[in-house]
Amino acid sequence: MLLICMVLTVSLSVFLSFFQFGRTEVIDNTLNPDFVRKFVLDFFFEEKQNLRFDVYNVDTRSSNLSKHDFLGQMFCTLGEIIGSTGSRLERTLSGIPGKKCGTIIFTAEELSNCRDIATMQFCANKLDKKDFFGKSDPFLVFYRSNEDGTFTICHKTEVIKNNLNPVWQPFTIPVRALCNGDYDRTVKVDVYDWDRDGSHDFIGEFTTSYRELSRGQSQFNVYENPLSLQYLLGGGGCFFPGNPSQPTSLHYMSPYQMNAYAMALKAVGEIIQDYDSDKLFPAYGFGAKLPPDGKISHAFPLNSNTENPNCVGIEGVLEAYFQSLRTVQLYGPTNFAPVINQVARCAAEITDGSQYFVLLMITDGVISDMAQTKEAVVNAAALPMSIIIVGVGPAEFDAMEELDGDEVRVSSRGRLAERDIVQMGCLSL
Hints:
Elements: E1 2-11, E2 15-23, E3 50-57, E4 69-77, H1 78-83, E5 88-92, E6 103-107, E7 116-120, E8 138-145, E9 151-156, E10 171-174, H2 175-179, E11 186-193, E12 201-209, H3 210-213, E13 221-224, E14 238-241, H4 260-272, E15 280-286, E16 288-290, E17 295-297, E18 300-301, E19 310-312, H5 313-327, E20 329-330, H6 337-348, E21 357-363, H7 370-380, E22 385-391, E23 411-412, E24 415-416, E25 422-426
Parallel strand pairs: 14-15, 14-21, 21-22, 22-25
Antiparallel strand pairs: 1-2, 1-3, 3-4, 5-6, 7-10, 7-13, 8-9, 8-11, 11-12, 15-18, 15-19, 16-17, 16-20, 23-24
Helix pairs in contact: 4-5, 6-7
């Protein structure tokens, strides 16, 4: 059985096509393969990275896929895998009408910057005899432990035929593939007796760690490999400002196309929603007079439900946004601090590291409370949250650039933010 990873490319913003990124090894005679070969992908949080996985039954040595039987395929984004609970995504295969194609499971993990390479050689003594008419045909399977306590296969040795005291060939493996650079992470090794039909007999197992292995004999060597990869991770949550509702307004509800705010929400929201497990987004507006008494609010739920401001998916947020435009009177000033403080209060309740908040703010560039906003950002920098500000429309956004602490850390009343939590960008629509 063979797994193919395909990556979507965009050419001239018109033509969409997939190119083959890589193939796993072929695993013989099994309906439940556990592939060793991994796909290492660069991850860009701000992009929607579409993936397609095709599964084939390999009948010949030909590399031409048309020579093999297609078993099914699955589409997803890289963000969906990373954003799943424990970065573990299980999906149903499809592609053959009227037939159940099975399921496929992916796990993802951020690669460490460890560049060590380990060369190891293993031997065994007095293994159990599993074959009736001969000795065992042993091989080793190495698993690294995942952060959720499960194990992922990372290496297989060759098979040594008819031998209870095998000496396997030396092999080389990146340390980050073995333990992701954590020298004390558990490494599990299973010993099997190979059978031609794929029903390999389990002989035994042991657990160790890279640190423990490195104390072994001189055949275990480490050297540097000048390669590194960097990844980003994130989560989700959304808030929105208000402005006039004339045909020239960025909020204008045209029957023919979405307005600038809706297009920005859809473009950014469809990317960040992959990192939220339940796809429930609290959505707020800021800068409006609310019915029935015209009270001005700078943090009101778009769905008018103060007890449960959650919307289901980005489509639910869009629906609540359009409905809100029909019921409230958009009104200035545009204050950022109230919604930042509201999210900060939620983030402050999380003390066990189980949640991270991302506040998405879409604005036309007019901010009325810069001093208060800076103070809110400085306070929030100590909490598990980040802020994404997306500017839309023709306004100048230079004034808000000082909230993005890439060059100079945001400060308020002599206090510097502990870290840079604001990313500012403009969306051309």
